[in-house]
Design goal:
It is built from 7 helices and 6 strands; from the N terminus they run αβαβαβαβαβααβ. The chain is an alpha/beta fold and 203 residues long. Helix 5 packs parallel to helix 6. The N terminus is likely disordered. It binds S-adenosylmethionine.
C-alpha cells in the first residue's frame, strides 16, 4: 500500500490547481510539507515555466532539470513555443544555479538526466500514450522513497487519459494503486481535468 501523510488537501483555497506561484498545485504543497531536505527534481513539459517557478519558489530544490524540446505539436506552433521558451528562461533566471535546461524530448532526456531523483513531475502532452510513455521512462529514474506525479488528473474514473495511464502503469508494475476515493482526497475535485496525481516509489 502506498502511504501518504494525510493533509488537508480538500481545501480548494489552499490546494488550488491553478496558476503559480500564489496558487500552487497539490503535489508541490505535499512535497513542501513533507520534504524539507534539498531535492533533485525534474519537470517534463515546461512551456512558459509557470509551474516550474512555483516549485522553485516553494520547495527546497538543489537541482531542477527542466525538460522540454519546444517542438511544435497540436496548436503549439514554433513561434508560440519559442516565445514560451524565452519567457521560461526569464522567469527561472533567479534560480540559474539550480536549473538545468534539457531541450530534448522526454524519451531522450531520460537518458541524459541522472538517476536517483527525488521527484519527477510529468506535464507533457496529456494523451494516454504520452502519459504512459513518460511514466514508463521516468519511474525507473526516481529513487526509492521518491515521488512521481504530474498534472491533468481528473476525478472521474476513465474520463481522462492521464488517469487511465497512471492506473494502468501502476497496476502493470504491481504497485497497488490507492483506491479511487483515496485519489479523490488528493485531487482538486472542483477542477476535474486539472489536478495532480502522485505516488511514492517503494524503498
Ligand atoms: C501542458 S504544457 C506544460 C505546462 C507547464 N508544466 C506549466 O504548468 O506551467 C506541455 C509542454 O510539454 C512540452 N512537450 C511536448 N512534447 C514533449 C516531449 N516529448 N517531451 C517533453 N516535453 C514535451 C511542450 O513543448 C509544452 O511546453
Amino acid at each position: 500500500m502506498i502511504e501518504f501523510t494525510p493533509l488537508e488537501v480538500h481545501n480548494p483555497a489552499r490546494y488550488s490547481c491553478g496558476g503559480p506561484p500564489d496558487t500552487p498545485r497539490p503535489m508541490t504543497l505535499f512535497l513542501r510539507e513533507n520534504h524539507p531536505d534539498p531535492m533533485i527534481g525534474v519537470e517534463v513539459g515546461v512551456l512558459e515555466g509557470a509551474h516550474a517557478v512555483s516549485m522553485l519558489s516553494l520547495l527546497n530544490i538543489s537541482n531542477f532539470y527542466l525538460v522540454d524540446p519546444y517542438l511544435p505539436y497540436g496548436d503549439l506552433t514554433d513561434l508560440i513555443l519559442e516565445k514560451a521558451r524565452i519567457k521560461a528562461i526569464r522567469y527561472t533566471k533567479e534560480w540559474d544555479d539550480i536549473v538545468e535546461w534539457v531541450y530534448y524530448t522526454s524519451k531522450d532526456a531520460a537518458n541524459i538526466v541522472p538517476n536517483e531523483l527525488d521527484f519527477v513531475y510529468i506535464d507533457g502532452p496529456h494523451s494516454y500514450s504520452n502519459t504512459y510513455f513518460d511514466i514508463n521512462a521516468w519511474y525507473p529514474k526516481v529513487k526509492g522513497g521518491g515521488y512521481i506525479g504530474g498534472h491533468n488528473y481528473g476525478n472521474t474514473k476513465g474520463a481522462v487519459p492521464t488517469v487511465e495511464a497512471v492506473h494502468e502503469f501502476m497496476e502493470n508494475i504491481g504497485i497497488e494503486v490507492p483506491g479511487w476515493d483515496y485519489y479523490n482526497k488528493w485531487a482538486c475535485t472542483h477542477l476535474p481535468p486539472h489536478c495532480d496525481w502522485w505516488v511514492r516509489k517503494p524503498e
